[in-house]
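Incident log, support desk, overnight shift.

02:14 A customer reports that sequence design results differ from what the structure should imply. Their input is reproduced verbatim below. On-call engineer (initials T.W.) acknowledged and began investigating.
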C-alpha cells in the first residue's frame, strides 16, 4: 500500500500516514460492522438453545433486525441524570468500545497481515483490555445513582479479580512460543496449543467469560438485585455503545482464543498456500472460522449455566481458579524445561512428542482437580447435613433447618 501511494505521487511520510489511517479504518470498521451480524447470530443461537425462534420478522430470517434496532436506539432521547458528572458520564461508553477496538490493532490476520506487530503484544492486550473495567467504574460513579455505583463496585471486585487467572493463563503460550509477539505465537503452533494444554484453555475461557460479565458471571447487571447495573442511567446511543462493546468483546475473546490456542491463521497446512499463491484471504478465513467456534462455545455456556451469587463468584476465582492457574503454569514450565531442544522446534514432527508430554501433564492435572473437587463436595454436603440435624419428615420435619443456613 505504501509503495502504491508513493508511485502515484505521495511523499513517504504522507503515504505512511494514509496507509496507517486506512488500516485503522478497515480494522475498526470490520469490528463494528461485525457487531451487527454478531448480535443477530447470538440472538438466533439463544433462541435455538431456549426452544424459540429469535429474530425472524425484519428481513430474511431476521437479518435486518440489528439494523432496525440500531436506527431505533439512535433516535431515542439522550438523557443525562441530574447531578451526574457530564464529562465522565459521556466518555465512559466511548471508552468501553475503544478498549475492545484497540485490541484488534495487534491481531494477526495472516502472515505479515497485522496492524502493529508489537514485541510485547500480549502485554498490550492485557493493558488495553483493562480499560473496559475503568469504563464501567466511570459509568457507575458518574451516574449519581446508588444502583449504578453498586454495579461499578461489583465490576471492581469481579473484573479485576478474574484478570489474575487470565494473565497467568496467557503466560503459558508465551512460555511455549518464547515470545510475546502474537505472530510468533501463531507460527510456533505446529500443533494447536489446545491439544497440548487444554487446562490453560479452560482457565482462559472461564476467566474471559467472567471478564465479559456474561452468564454465569453476569453479576455486573443482576437486574434482580441492582436493577440493571452500572449503565442503568444510560439511554439512546450511549447505552447502545455499551451494548456494542459487550458483543464485540465477546467475539474478540473468540479471536484471542483462536490466536493463542487454535493456531490463528494456520489451518492444517493451508497456510503454505498463503505464501505460495499469495492468498492472505485463506488465513483470514481460517482465523474467523476458529474464532466463531470459540464464540459459539461461549454463547453455549452463557445460555446453559445459571447465574452465580457474588460470594460464589469470588470464591470460584480466589479459591479455585487462581491456585489452579498457578499450579498449571508451574507444571507446564517444569515439563517444558525437562524437554530437550525446545528452542529448535520448527516442524510438526519436532512438536509432536513435546505436545504429548504436555498433554499427559494436563490430564494428570485434570484428574487431580477432579479428586480435589469431589472431596470438597463431599465435605460440604456432610457439613450441611450436620447443620440440618435429624429430620423426622423428609418434606417438613420439626428439626429441619432451611437449606440455605450456613451457606
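02:41 Re-run completed on a clean worker. Output:
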Amino acid at each position: 500500500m505504501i509503495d502504491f501511494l508513493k508511485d502515484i505521487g505521495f511523499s513517504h511520510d504522507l503515504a505512511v500516514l494514509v496507509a496507517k489511517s486506512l488500516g485503522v479504518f478497515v480494522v475498526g470498521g470490520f469490528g463494528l460492522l461485525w457487531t451487527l451480524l454478531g448480535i443477530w447470530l447470538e440472538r438466533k443461537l439463544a433462541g435455538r438453545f431456549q426452544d424459540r425462534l429469535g429474530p425472524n420478522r425484519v428481513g430474511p430470517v431476521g437479518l435486518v433486525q440489528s439494523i432496525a434496532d440500531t436506527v431505533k436506539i439512535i433516535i431515542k432521547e439522550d438523557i443525562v441524570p441530574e447531578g451526574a458528572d457530564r464529562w465522565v458520564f459521556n466518555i465512559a461508553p466511548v471508552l468501553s468500545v475503544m478498549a475492545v477496538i484497540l485490541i484488534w490493532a495487534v491481531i494477526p490476520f495472516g502472515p505479515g497481515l497485522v496492524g502493529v506487530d508489537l514485541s510485547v503484544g500480549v502485554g498490550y492486550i492485557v493493558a488495553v483490555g483493562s480499560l473496559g473495567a475503568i469504563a464501567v467504574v466511570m459509568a457507575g460513579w458518574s451516574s449519581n445513582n446508588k444502583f449504578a455505583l453498586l454495579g461499578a463496585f461489583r465490576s471492581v471486585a469481579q473484573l479485576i479479580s478474574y484478570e489474575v487467572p487470565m494473565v497467568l493463563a496467557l503466560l503459558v503460550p508465551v512460555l511455549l512460543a518464547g515470545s510475546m509477539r502474537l505472530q510468533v505465537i501463531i507460527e510456533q503452533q505446529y500443533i494447536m496449543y489446545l491439544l497440548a494444554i487444554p487446562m490453560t484453555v479452560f482457565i482462559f475461557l472461564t476467566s474471559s467469560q467472567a471478564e465479559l460479565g456474561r452468564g454465569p458471571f453476569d453479576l455486573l447487571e443482576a437486574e434482580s438485585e441492582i436493577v440493571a447495573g452500572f449503565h442503568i442511567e444510560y439511554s439512546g446511543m450511549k447505552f447502545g455503545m455499551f451494548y456494542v462493546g459487550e458483543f464485540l468483546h465477546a467475539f474478540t475473546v473468540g479471536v484471542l482464543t483462536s490466536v493463542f490456542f487454535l493456531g490463528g491463521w494456520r489451518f492444517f497446512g493451508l497456510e503454505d498456500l498463503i505464501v505460495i499463491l499469495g492468498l492472505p484471504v485463506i488465513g483470514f478465513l481460517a482465523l474467523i472460522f476458529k474464532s466463531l467456534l470459540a464464540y459459539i462455545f461461549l454463547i453455549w455456556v452463557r445460555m446453559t449455566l445459571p447465574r452465580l451469587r457474588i460470594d460464589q463468584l469470588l470464591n470460584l476465582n480466589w479459591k479455585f481458579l487462581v491456585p489452579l492457574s498457578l499450579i498449571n503454569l508451574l507444571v507446564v514450565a517444569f515439563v517444558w524445561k525437562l524437554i530437550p531442544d525446545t528452542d529448535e522446534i520448527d516442524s510438526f514432527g519436532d512438536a509432536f512428542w513435546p505436545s504429548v508430554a504436555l498433554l499427559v501433564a494436563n490430564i494428570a492435572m485434570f484428574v487431580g482437580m477432579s479428586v480435589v473437587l469431589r472431596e470438597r463436595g463431599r465435605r460440604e454436603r456432610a457439613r450441611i447435613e450436620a447443620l440440618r440435624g435429624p429430620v423426622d419428615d423428609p418434606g417438613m420435619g420439626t428439626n429441619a433447618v432451611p437449606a440455605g443456613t450456613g451457606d
